[in-house]
Design a protein that fits this description.
Elements: H1 8-20, H2 22-25, E1 36-38, E2 49-54, H3 60-77, E3 80-86, H4 87-90, H5 94-106, E4 109-117, E5 122-128, E6 141-147, H6 150-162, E7 190-191, E8 203-206, H7 212-222, E9 229-232, H8 238-243, E10 248-256, H9 257-263, E11 274-278, E12 283-287, E13 291-299, E14 305-306, H10 317-333
Parallel strand pairs: 1-6, 2-3, 2-4, 7-14, 8-9, 8-10
Antiparallel strand pairs: 4-5, 5-6, 10-13, 11-12, 13-14
Helix pairs in contact: 3-6, 7-10
């Protein structure tokens, strides 16, 4: 099956991940790649709830201080920031973006505030959330303000919001920042096994790989998969794939191990400081907060997911990919 050109959503997600997750990709891209600078705040900013998304370029302790400083000024301004998230989690995969969009919509969140740190300054992007499964759209407007001092940045947001002439109905606002609840992306049943029907049904493998070298690595890994599969456009929905006669989809999450444990509903491991990753060629411990890739398979008709028998995540996508594929093949052949 030929690979279709990615549409703007996949480009948006990939670039957004690059901006916010410098610790994972080693790159930093200006958020203006996707946001057009708007002249005004979102109209409902002081009437609806807001979610704050913190850049992966912020350190953990720095992020905590920024949350406190931000909440103080947001409360004064009438911005009802009800949840603070790590953007690594929000854009960790297609399933997670959809799950976050559904969660925020359910909570009545209508505005997002993205706090990004560059080498010389902090920048706040304030924009409306999308109404569908996408949180944002490429090119949408965002009110933007930057400052070398984050406390001064939030003070300036307060002053400008107070003078913007917006209707305010937000009055009961938290004094302290509230960590956002991570959504569960398991919508049906979850299995720490592999589905034996993979031996007869067609598996969709999203073509995430942008360079010839990465594509060659992925192809070499899938050469060891003896069952039916085809590469597909990552932007195809589960419904699209079912219409094309696929029964399973290979999925992945890319964020901190601690977040993956919660979103994939692993029990009793969230309090650990380290996780033992069981690889094909080696096993090793790594900090639970380290960004990693984790693969799993979804049965498209039922929504059941198969995370595998082993925790096999890895900071290297190719190792995580190989671990999951080879573990699944070995288990199914037993």
């Amino acid at each position: 099956m030929p690979i279709k050109m990615k549409n703007f959503k996949s480009i948006f997600l990939a670039l957004f991940a690059c901006i916010i997750t410098a610790s994972v990709t080693g790159q930093a891209i200006n958020p203006e790649v996707f946001f057009t600078q708007g002249a005004s705040f979102p109209e409902d900013m002081l009437k609806t709830k807001a979610a704050v998304m913190l850049s992966g370029t912020l350190g953990i302790e720095e992020g905590k201080k920024i949350q406190v400083a931000a909440q103080e000024q947001f409360q004064r301004a009438g911005i009802d920031a009800v949840a603070y998230y790590d953007i690594l989690d929000v854009y960790s995969g297609n399933d997670t973006e959809n799950a976050f969009a559904a969660l925020l919509k359910k909570r009545g969140v209508g505005v997002a505030i993205i706090i990004h740190k560059s080498p010389s300054e902090y920048t706040a992007y304030i924009t409306a959330l999308g109404q569908g499964t996408n949180l944002f759209s490429m090119g949408q407007q965002a009110w933007t303000l930057s400052d070398a001092d984050y406390k001064r940045l939030f003070s300036n947001i307060y002053r400008r919001a107070s003078n913007a002439g917006l209707e305010r109905i937000n009055l009961l606002i938290n004094d302290v920042p509230e960590p956002g609840q991570l959504p569960k992306i398991v919508t049906s049943r979850r299995f720490e096994t592999y589905n034996p029907n993979l031996t007869i049904d067609l598996l969709a493998v999203p073509n995430y790989y942008k360079s010839p070298g990465d594509s060659a690595v992925a192809a070499a890994i899938m050469n060891n998969y003896p069952y039916k599969f085809e590469y597909v456009n990552p932007d195809l929905t589960d419904r699209d794939l079912l219409d094309q006669k696929f029964q399973f989809r290979l999925c992945r999450i890319q964020t901190r191990g601690s977040s993956i444990l919660r979103m994939l509903d692993y029990k009793g491991q969230g309090d650990q400081k380290e996780l033992m990753s069981i690889g094909i060629n080696e096993s090793r411990k790594m900090p639970i907060g380290r960004p990693v890739y984790k693969y799993y398979i979804k049965h498209l008709f039922t929504g059941n997911i198969y995370v595998g028998e082993k925790w096999d995540a890895d900071p290297d996508w190719s190792k995580a990919f190989e671990n999951y594929i080879q573990h699944s093949v070995n288990a199914i052949k037993k």
